[in-house]
């Protein structure tokens, strides 16, 4: 398996890989597991790179510098051009925060650690993955790290150990075991980090260094292995989806499929090999790297520019544009460098690569230092765009699983006040801090706010360890300190129904099956909230249930900033009130039912402050965005709805000796 004779079937495999990834990203129905195309690329890279190293080493002419110069010639020119073009497009299209993030991602990519960068970005308030133009470079960083480390490892093992192939096999098993473990315990590490992905590249590497046998496999065996292997890849491409625990054991299907196809078609010419070697697939395979580079930023920038969402025809146009750019990159960038028509020498390509990467890295840092060159935008567009960022004051009051941020409760108003209340909830509780802070200062009472992102303020088995610990700490705080009132605030519908687009994100599942069922989720929500309220009332606390603010259909600051950049109206954007009421119907009824059974429980609703009767729920007022995304109120939004808290403010002001009051006392 050391021959480097050109194999059309491997280019065909590249075509399968890039088609799977691109069709998946462009949302083509059925291609729900297209993300495994990256794993196909990993195995192919492991095989080809190791084949090159091993043949040259056996011939006594392997050079680390020559190897890295070839890798630089193959990978960097097209990558550098794509990043430069993205910087230019971003100047005209991206809001400051997003342009700054583009700079950060490019800075990390030029030092080959963008996989670490994106892994650490997987936080509660980070930009959605489908709006990060450089996100796809994580896989390039994994490969680049492998290209640096693996030649050193292979040369060391093969020169020091007699059974070095066995050592490679053991390393691949360790990597695979780490991947399986990480999928269950640290899925972001399993996805992004080389140690958990190395076994896929090593699978191809081990295939490349198999001892050569004089007798090839029989045609029947090769045909069978080839067909089964293609089936494994296709099962993953069309059978996996976003709920598949990946990579881990699930990655075995595409990895073994690629290994089987490369092996079988290296033994005999098979039917699958002829298919993979067809003119169309080989052509796609030849441009696969450049197409992979361009398809993602084209799609992201297209979404960014569309404002109101992409139509099917626009998605199709972007697909074609990415293919055209991929072909152009292969023809006019990849080709001249690979054929040594530009920077032919080893030294020249390495020096030019270092200079270009260093320059891009400095530009990326410049975008960070300049806060994304905010002066590019008009004052109004900039004001909208900057609403995207939560203030440090709010963030310090919010715990978060992703950042392992425990946080401590925040206190507002005079600490010596005899009237004290606890605001307990998720990030929506933190978003209301400006309103609670104003009220505490105005009426001279003390507010303690305890918030944890994505955490229901009552016990559920599905709550994360961080959420459960937070709720336990908050319960202990209630037992330790005297609070007359407890305000429960959350994005309730998220836990019961998930995101607007479906049940994705719903955290209340059937305890028997572990699956989501709408009726069961509603029942368990009612039981959990009712039990919590009863416990709080039995402990002597007055309870306030706050309904959630209208969930908008779009990222508010993003849309308003883009509209302002285009000189278009921003005052007519928002969600129809009827849609908000329909989504909240069951939850609202539950609140009212709990309150009706106990005079010490009241319901507060911010929606009337945002929504006109029989009309729509606004997202902007007097040039200020009322949301920081599609569901969290901004500081301006929190202050706008502050009036809905007046019954609570008045009741707390009137509290003197004890918290238990009649219903008339709080009306």
Automatic annotation (TrEMBL):
Example GO molecular function: hydrolase activity
Parts of the chain that traverse the membrane: 12-28, 34-54, 75-94, 145-161, 168-184, 190-209, 221-240, 246-264, 276-294, 306-328, 349-369
Any Pfam family: SGNH
Enzyme Commission number(s): 2.3.1.-
Record's keyword terms, sorted: Acyltransferase, Hydrolase, Membrane, Transferase, Transmembrane, Transmembrane helix
Residue ranges constituting the SGNH domain according to the UniProt record: 397-646
Keyword Hydrolase: yes
Name of the protein in question: O-acetyltransferase OatA
């Amino acid at each position: 398996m050391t021959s480097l004779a050109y194999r059309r079937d491997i280019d065909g495999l590249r075509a399968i890989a890039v088609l799977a990834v691109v069709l998946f990203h462009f949302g083509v129905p059925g291609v729900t597991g297209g993300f495994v195309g990256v794993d196909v690329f990993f195995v192919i890279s492991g095989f080809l790179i190791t084949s090159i190293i091993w043949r040259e080493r056996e011939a006594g002419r392997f050079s680390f510098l020559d190897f890295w110069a070839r890798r630089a010639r193959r990978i960097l020119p097209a990558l550098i051009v794509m990043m430069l073009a993205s910087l230019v497009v971003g100047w005209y299209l991206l809001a400051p925060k997003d342009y700054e993030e583009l700079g950060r991602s490019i800075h990390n990519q030029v030092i080959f650690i963008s996989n670490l960068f994106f892994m650490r970005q997987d936080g509660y308030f980070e930009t959605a993955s489908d709006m990060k133009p450089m996100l796809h470079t994580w896989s390039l960083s994994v490969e680049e790290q492998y290209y640096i480390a693996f030649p050193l490892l292979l040369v060391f093992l093969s020169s020091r150990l007699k059974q070095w192939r066995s050592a490679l096999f053991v390393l691949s098993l360790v990597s695979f075991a780490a991947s399986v473990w990480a999928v269950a315990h640290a899925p972001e590490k399993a996805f992004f980090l080389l140690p958990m992905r190395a076994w896929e590249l090593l699978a191809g590497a081990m295939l490349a260094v198999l001892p050569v046998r004089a007798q090839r496999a029989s045609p029947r065996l090769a045909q069978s292995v080839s067909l089964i292997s293609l089936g494994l890849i296709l099962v993953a491409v069309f059978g996996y989806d976003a709920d598949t625990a990946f990579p881990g054991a699930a990655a075995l299907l595409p990895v073994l499929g690629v290994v089987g196809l490369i092996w079988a078609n290296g033994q005999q010419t098979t039917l699958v090999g002829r298919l993979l070697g067809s003119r169309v697939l080989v052509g796609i395979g030849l441009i696969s790297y450049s197409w992979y580079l361009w398809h993602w930023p084209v799609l992201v920038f297209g979404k960014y520019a569309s404002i109101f969402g992409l139509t099917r025809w626009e998605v199709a146009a972007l697909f074609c544009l990415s293919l055209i750019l991929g072909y152009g990159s292969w023809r006019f960038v990849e080709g001249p460098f690979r054929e040594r028509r530009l920077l032919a020498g080893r030294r020249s390509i390495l020096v030019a690569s270092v200079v270009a990467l260093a320059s891009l890295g400095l530009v990326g840092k410049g975008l960070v230092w300049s806060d994304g060159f905010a002066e590019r935008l008009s004052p109004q567009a900039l004001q909208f765009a900057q609403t995207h960022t939560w203030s440090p004051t709010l963030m310090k009051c919010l715990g978060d699983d992703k950042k392992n941020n425990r946080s401590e409760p925040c206190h507002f108003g005079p600490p010596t006040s005899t009237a004290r209340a606890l605001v307990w909830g998720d990030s929506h509780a933190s978003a209301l801090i400006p309103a609670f802070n104003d009220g505490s200062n105005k009426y001279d009472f003390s507010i303690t706010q305890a918030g944890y992102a994505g955490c229901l303020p009552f016990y559920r088995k599905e709550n994360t360890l961080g959420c459960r610990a937070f709720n336990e700490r908050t319960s202990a705080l209630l037992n330790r300190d005297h609070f007359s009132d407890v305000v429960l605030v959350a994005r309730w519908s998220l836990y019961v129904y998930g995101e607007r687009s479906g049940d994705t994100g719903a955290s209340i599942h059937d305890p028997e099956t572990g699956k989501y069922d709408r009726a069961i989720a509603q029942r368990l929500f009612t039981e959990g909230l009712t039990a919590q309220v009863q416990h709080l009332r039995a402990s002597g606390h007055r309870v306030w249930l706050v309904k959630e603010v209208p969930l908008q259909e779009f990222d508010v600051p993003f849309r308003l900033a883009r509209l302002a950049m285009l000189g278009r109206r921003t005052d007519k954007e928002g969600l129809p009130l009827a849609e908000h009421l329909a989504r909240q119907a069951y939850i609202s009824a539950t609140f009212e039912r709990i309150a009706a059974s106990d005079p010490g429980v009241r319901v507060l609703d911010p929606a009337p402050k945002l929504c006109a009767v029989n009309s729509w729920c606004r997202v902007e007022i007097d040039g200020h965005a009322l949301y920081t995304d599609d569901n969290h109120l901004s500081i301006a939004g929190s202050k706008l709805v502050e009036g809905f808290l007046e019954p609570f403010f008045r009741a707390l002001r009137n509290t003197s000796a004890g918290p238990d009051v009649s219903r008339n006392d709080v009306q």
